[in-house]
Batch of 3 targets.
Target 1
Amino acid sequence: MVRPKFQPIKQKKISTKIVEQIKSLILHGDLRPGEILPPERELMKSLNVSRPSLREALNSLRGMGFIETQRNRTAIKSLASGRMLEPLHHLLKEDIGTAYNLIEVRKAIETWNAYLAAERATDSDINRIEECNSSMKTKMNEGISVAQEDADFHLAISEAGHNIIQTHLMFSIYDILKETLKKYYESMELLDIYGQHCKVVDAIKKRDGHLARRRMLEHLEYVESSLKEFFGSH
């Protein structure tokens, strides 16, 4: 009789378990790109771990590129960020044509995001999309910049598609574009943008993927033509 070859059980370090849990939350979309992690003391309490174990785990996650430090706070890093972003930032400063190229990329990704959102969004996802759009209208009425609310709206649609890679790609694209588009937001026809957003939301709520994709394409084509008109006159 051949005896089974038992393997010794290896006890995982606490820090390794912390890393695995945070990575899992990121990869399942429970921790979003740009989201700020709670302070160390709060994390220690939630995870029931010591400060040294937590710091060892955070250092590992930082080294792997899952998190980064922003103004003394720990934020979830986009999985799509990296060396590609720096040259793109420089290109945007020197050549507005790069922004048009990025909008073409947005057309490809975001129309699919809208389609997937119509197919997969939960009631909670739809509520979040509507809240982002409602927040944008409130800021419009108050005469406050809506750049962040516009980005949040598009990112919420991406998250509603439940494809983690597309969500992180979208976050990186908006992170690259935000400085370039700051002045553009001040001159754009916000009421038109808001109306187009409403049509996208309506298609998603109807669970009509093809209509949602078409509405998003119409919206992005409007943004593209407005952008060309704005920068062509400056």
Target 2
Amino acid sequence: MMEMTKEDIKSFALGKGLDLVGVSSIARFDGAPARMHPASIQPEAKSVIVVGRRIVRGAWRGIEEGTYWPSYTTFGYHGLLNTHFIPSPLYETACFIEDGGYEAVPYYPGVPETQPDVEPLRPGAAAPDVHLAIRIAAVAAGLGEIGWSKVFLTSRFGPRQRLAAIITDMELEPDPLVEPGTICDKCMNCVEGCAPDAIPHIKEKKTVSIKIEDKTYEWGDVDMGKCTLSYHGGDSSVSPFIHKAFPGWNIDVKKQNMSEEAAYKFCWSLSLGSWRKTPEFPEGYIIPGHADLGKWGVGGSYGIEGSRGCMRSCFNHLEGKRKAGQQFENPEFIHRKRWMLPIECEGDKGSNR
């Protein structure tokens, strides 16, 4: 075994390509539900190390211009966590910690925010599957705060990062918490930019809040059904693919009242059908645009809508006002009038214009 400090772990992780490393004590998760608590995964846990890697701003450029989709899903959304970009340095950091004689559990962020009602496998234990609220874990690790749109923000990249974690029985000094309101200034650009109207305006006073130590963090109570339905490709106002595959599609996501789970199932059924081509389905069963993203090897979780309000509008505001740590020659991201497609195609012929 070798002696190591928190600084050794951070230096190692950053040297492997990660951009963000923060540490939380297990005590900061007091009050978390058992099926969202890191100690339910590792009962001897004393610390949670949350790491992040930036999403390059240019990954959104093609979607913002309405011309090219694969970059965001591959390099900004699903691909950051499902390829080597984050898993490799996360794994190597876990190995580094275990070389020091402490157990390290690499944690892949789960998507579900609610879990089915099932029985525990061991009496007194939490039921499977346990999923940390990775954004809250990142707050507890001092990396940033949750913005009004429920997206995690850092002072360096704004909303432009993806997160993962390591749960360990090594006791580490926690990093200082970020003061609430340090990064998010409640500008409401996220509300204005959200295609499905999933983010409530601050005037509606629909909020969620948590308390970590002496600090209270609050954000808008986002309609995750509408958000998911739009983001994963069921919204023809921000998807150029759906009317081509389904002429006559006339679903206004703003008027839907669907759970997050149902929205996932619905959108993934649009994307994950058989690839087999038949005379009846000469292009296969998958929406062609979604299939094009699948060719990049990132599975079925596609960012079709591309976080129009919660991320693009957000970092356009923060970077445009020089409020983010990373600076650009052209600070504002949105340079031209933003595009939005009609919900129902004119003439019902599948045209996307």
Target 3
Amino acid sequence: MLFISKHRTYKIVFFCLIGFAFVSCKSYYTTLTIENARPAKEDLPSEIQSLTLMNRCMSNQYENYQEDSLQLYFYRQGFQLSKIVLDSTAADTTIRALAELLFESGRYDVVVPVERNIKRDISYELLPDTLSNMEVSRICQQYSTDALMVLERFSTKVMTDFSAEKYMDPTTGVYYSYYASQDLKYNAFFRIYRPGTKNPVKEFELVDTIYWESADYTQQRLFAKLPTIKQALINAGIKIALDIDSRISPTWISEKRGYFLFDLKNDLGRQLMNENRTAEAKAFWLEKAQSTNNKTRARAEYNLALASELDGNIDQAIEWGLKSFYSHYQHQTEVYLKKLKALKESKLTK
């Protein structure tokens, strides 16, 4: 089976160091950029930290279509066709793409079993009954996850159109202008189950259409601009995964943060931060926070607030920020405390 573990709550992207040759307050302050998580629009309960992803949409009506033969079928119909195409690769792509997206969000641990297809005996357009709690508990226990996410229904309808117009040019003679389009309408339904609960935690239905069109003077160039039918089906699977991820995963926002240096040339804290050794940087700043010099102590406490934020502990970051504020006033501390409080409020309102 495929196992994906979650990231830390915060990511350090890159460091932008600022230094000045002259001695001033700003000389001892440097900045970095972090990616800060904003809660999802429809975040799952905090007790759900891990998910098993499975597929219950595929019946014997599904087929793993060969790309060339599927394309040829549409060409033989004059590329003027409206047809339900149930492709197993597209359906499975939804599961695999969603697993990767949920992992990258840093919010969830994800397990995608090798045997991830749950047996289905009803037609593709029907929504099956909910899984029994016994079955949900068995699966979650088997893969050691908090919840089970199931693709219950998945279908795609391909609608293609092709036309040609004849023109007469006095110099070159007869020529043609070709136009083609393909619309792909998808319908997907997900349920998220949790052991011990009677009803699903969440249900999501996604219905939308993605569209491509092209025009050219030769048919070869015309169709080269369009994805093949097989590629379009796979794109639909990816689009569904993106839609779900955007609803239940946090959003990462790039934000500037700063910290104080204690040595302009060879600051140990900066060296450790540049190497992403934040725990060691925190230990260094804890020593500095014992200083009897108010300014030195305040700067170390400010840095410890940053370290706490990077650890995902906003309350502790605010505590260190307040200590810094009262040890020695610095404008950076006042600004940072406002950011931390706003960040905490945004999390509480979700």
